[in-house]
Amino acid sequence: MDFKNTDDSVTRRIRAMVERVTMLQDNDLYFYNLPISELRGGARVLVNGRDMGMYASYSYLGLVDHPRINAAAKDAIDRYATGTHGVRTLAGSLKIHDELEATIADFKQTEAAITYTSGYVTNLTVISSLLGRRDWVISDKLNHASIVDGCMMSGAEFRRYKHNDMEELEKRLQQAPADVSKLVIADSVFSMDGDLIDFPRMVQLCKQYNAWLMIDEAHSVGVLGKTGRGIEEHFGMEGTIDIKMGTLSKTIPSVGGYVAGKKEMITYLRHASRAYIFSAALPPAQAGAANEAFKVILDEPWRIQKLQANTDQFLNGIKNRGFNTLYSSTAIVPIICGTDERAFRMTREAHHHDIFALPVVSPAVPEGLARLRATVTAAHETDEIEYAMNVFEKAGKEIGIIS
Ligand SMILES: Cc1ncc(COP(=O)(O)O)c(C=O)c1O
Fold first, then answer.
1. Which of 66, 234, 244, 250 is catalytic?
2. 184 to each of 123, 136, 220, 259, 310, how far by Cα in Å?
3. Which of 141, 229, 265, 395 could bond 349 through an S-S bridge, CB–CB 3.0 to 4.6 Å?
């Protein structure tokens, strides 16, 4: 590669990354950005002509390629075509956007909702619009990058507490000056570890210390609660989150993000959040697909039951084979391998046996806790899950992760 300057920090940064990627590619250890040519219902995918079992998807309820959702997307194209041609505030808001926001508010049992073009952007813009200098934002150390970036962008005092440690959260709340606004923010289910937050205690602390509570439900919508409504339903504590954030790109087979809550807060965000007023709206097809997906979740509750059964089979099966899965209790199962190198080798073995799962290595997770992160969905069948677990077991024994 020809660089403008051979030794400035930009060049060094680019070169270090390129060298790392090249080293992995040269050693048959590069598993990212794989070319998928067919989705095959979500439980299987076609990669470089090979039919593989898919264990890296967040399509928890297997709604990918659902006929009703596909039809809704096509219908939205027929009615509104493909683009939104500007920001909603100025270029006009399509009826499908209003319908989607009403559907989300209904699903999340709130007064109103607002949508953005990605979950990442939703966290960035919502946190930075609600908070400003002098306010305090208190965040779990394992929160998603989009939350961290939103906190930093807000200019508020940014404090973190040890993962899921409610005593440390209380200390941070006590440290905040009495006259500042406080926001506590956490993922409901953690995307690297698959564990749940201590929601009841967190709600109680927010009440006690008069703090706002924002929860990112990217991995709990469709997953937790009898009807898939998320963490409040799971704990029977409806109406306790002030700012309910979620994405339209995981259980919901579309793209985008949303926040649901009180009407006045949504009115504020519609006129103050920069990703809404300075960025084009969701394309109609994606809004139509998302709108229908929330309805399918309620109409097909068997999917939630099947996801639960598949999660039990997978999580227990992996644990019984001797793997460490940390505190996961959901469909996200971290199979701890130890060193980065072991996680890469484990992945390579899995791929050679047609199992699509991805390694997560440092710095994304602490050194020594590199893992294969595998997810199951409602689309998997019992024998497919058994096959995948046997592949992991054989590889784990060969590499020396389990005995
Ligand atoms: C917890 C969490 N929040 C937010 C996001 C961002 O969502 P999106 O992919 O829709 O931008 C993700 C996606 O990985 C996530 O896991």
1. 250
2. 13, 9, 18, 15, 32
3. 395
Whether 263 is catalytic is no
- The CA R_g of the chain, rounded to the nearest whole Å, is 22
Residues 6 or more apart in contact with residue 379 via CB below 8 angstroms: 41, 42, 43, 59, 62, 64
The upper half-sphere exposure of residue 400, i.e. CA atoms within 13 Å in the direction of its Cβ, equals 4
Is the preceding omega at residue 284 within 30 degrees of 0, hence cis? no
Distance of CA 78 to CAs 53, 82, 94, 101, 219, Å? 34, 9, 13, 20, 32
- Asked if 250 is an active-site residue, the reply is yes
Q: What number is the average pLDDT over the span 373-387?
A: 97
Ligand 1 surroundings by CB, under 6 angstroms? 118-120, 123, 144, 146, 187, 191, 216, 218-219, 247, 249, 257
Q: Which of 140, 192, 247, 332 has most ligand 1 atoms within 8 Å of its beta carbon, as the pocket-test mutant?
A: 247
DSSP string, 357-380: -EEE-TTTS-TT-EEEEEE--TT-
Over residues 267-283, mean pLDDT:
97
Q: What is the pTM of this model?
A: 0.96
CB atoms inside a 10 Å sphere around CB 122: 29
pLDDT for the residue numbered 304: 98
Q: Which atom of ligand 1 is nearest to the CA of 190?
A: 1
For residue 5, the model assigns a pLDDT of 67
Mean pLDDT score, 235-243: 98
Q: Give the model's pLDDT for residue 319.
A: 97
The predicted structure's pLDDT at residue 343: 96
Q: What is the mean pLDDT of residues 172-191?
A: 97
Q: Which of 66, 108, 144, 219 is catalytic?
A: 219
What atom of ligand 1 comes closest to residue 255's alpha carbon? 10
Q: Whose CA is nearest to atom 15 of ligand 1?
A: 218
The pLDDT value recorded for residue 2 is 63
Residue 1 has pLDDT above 80, yes or no: no
Among residues 59, 154, 191, 220, the one annotated as catalytic is 191
Residue to probe by mutation, ligand 1, list 58, 104, 118, 120, most atoms within 8 Å of CB: 120
* Cα distance between residue 54 and residue 384, in whole Å: 10
The pLDDT of residue 3? 62
**Is 191 an active-site residue?**
yes
User: For residue range 107-123, what is the model confidence (pLDDT) as tens digits?
Assistant: 999 999 999 999 999 99
Q: How confident is the model at residue 4 (pLDDT cuts 50, 70, 90)?
A: low
Going by the DSSP 8-state scheme, the letter that residue 197 receives in this structure is P
